[in-house]
Amino acid sequence: MPKVSIITPFFNNESPYFRKCLDSLVNQTLRDIEIILVDDCSTDASLEIAREYERHDPRVRVIAMTENCGAASARNAALAIAAGEFLGFVDSDDYVDLDFFEKLYNAAIESGADIVKSAIVINDQKKIYLHKWIEENKYIFYAQWQAAIYSHKIVMENNISFPADIPTGQDLIFQLKCVYYANRVKTIDDAHYYWVRRPDSLDSEFSPRYKTISQLKVREMFVDFINSNKMPRKDYMHIFNRVFHDIKWIFNKTTSADAHKIICAEYIKIYAKCKYKSDFAREHHALYPYLACEDLDGFYKACKRMGLVANNEFNFKLFGKISLWRVKRAAGAVNIYVLYVPLFRTRDNWLYVFKFIPLFKFIRR
Predict the structure, then answer these.
(1) Are 217 and 243 in contact (CB under 8 A)?
(2) Residue 305: its pLDDT value, please?
(3) E strands within the chain?
(4) What does the pLDDT look like over 168-212, one tens digit per residue?
(5) Distance, CA of 117 to CA of 208 (rounded, Å)
(6) Nearest-CA neighbor of 86 among 127, 137, 170, 30?
(7) Does residue 192 sit in helix, strand or coil?
(8) Rounded to an integer, what is the distance from CA 352 to the centroid of its chain?
């Protein structure tokens, strides 16, 4: 049995990123691994690149999907044949330290933990995401799911997979279920997963409506899962509050008031499922009255008053179909900041001199 099965789905990634990813996997210091590459019907030379690595390394296995089904189905196909004691996931744009899986595996064996999480590096900036708190409460492990290994046993025994009926966010559902069934989550700071955010990355764009709907569906699935499984009230509310904290991120990945209304309507629906509404009212007292009486317009206006809804329309029109992050990367030495300048307050909202003011800070290289 391999110590770790590493799963990497790919689609049309005929690029240096893909080779850098694969080189970081086949050269791991932990030699007793298997690497499962899943081609989601690429139309470029990605499959040939994967086959090349398969020919040169017997630990590499390539699965060619018969139809394009998305990353969730690709990962599920790999789960069906994985034989490792632990499971690791590396996206085809990303890469890891050469001793990444050795350090995580050793930490898992020494600690007895079902999940071990590493540090993550995003665009050359190291992020040690709440490691101290994750050690104390495993449910704080909510993001950066790929920077970890997971016990294959708990995945198999609890029939955990990636929901294939939603286009984005499936990894969060997989992560939540693994964390729920795990005995503990161990963290280490000296192993690094390198998350590469390319200029054309899907995560860097404003979300089209179908992705917004998908992200909302994921949050509803979160609540359905915690409602159907037993957990301490404190942990339940931690997850439920996390779902509501995500509303700002979802708002600001969209560009239209219509989409914002869809988000508000879905969050009213999610709130109705909360087991402990009195606890929620204490945490979100400014939103609670509108949610309790299902006041869609009132809830939307309250979100705007609290700054949860930014005016992405101006930002979107100013830079075309390029997000602020892409402009910053394209400019190279330019950092873009945004300021809100409140002028005066009306009954329902703040008015601003300018909703967005781009400021440029030039850095000498």
Answers:
(1) no
(2) 87
(3) 4-10, 33-39, 60-64, 86-89, 95-96, 115-122, 125-127, 148-151, 185-195, 334-338, 342-345, 350-352, 358-362
(4) 899 999 999 999 999 999 999 999 999 997 665 545 455 677 888
(5) 31
(6) 30
(7) strand
(8) 32
Report the distance separating Cα 146 and Cα 163, nearest Å.
16
Q: Specify the amino acid at residue 198.
A: R
What letter represents residue 78's amino acid?
Answer: A
**8 Å CB contact between 305 and 350:** yes
Give CA–CA dist 53/62, Å, rounded.
Answer: 9
Over residues 46-71, the pLDDT tens digits come to: 999 999 999 999 999 999 999 999 99
Environment class of 132 (CB within 10 Å of its CB; exposed 0-12, middle 13-18, buried 19+): exposed
What whole-number distance in Å separates Cα of residue 345 and Cα of residue 324?
28
Q: Please, are residues 102 and 96 in contact by the beta-carbon 8 Å criterion?
A: no
| Sign of the four-CA dihedral 128, 130, 134, 138 | negative
* pTM exceeds 0.70, yes or no: yes
> Of 90, 82, 86, which is closest to residue 10 (Cα–Cα)?
90
SS3 readout for 203-247: HHCCCCHHHHHHHHHHHHHHHHHHHHCCCCHHHHHHHHHHHHHCH
Torsion, CA 252, CA 256, CA 260, CA 265, rounded to 10: -150
With 0-12 CB in 10 A as exposed, 13-18 as middle and 19+ as buried, what is 236?
buried
The torsion angles phi and psi of 332, rounded to 5 degrees, stand at 80, -75
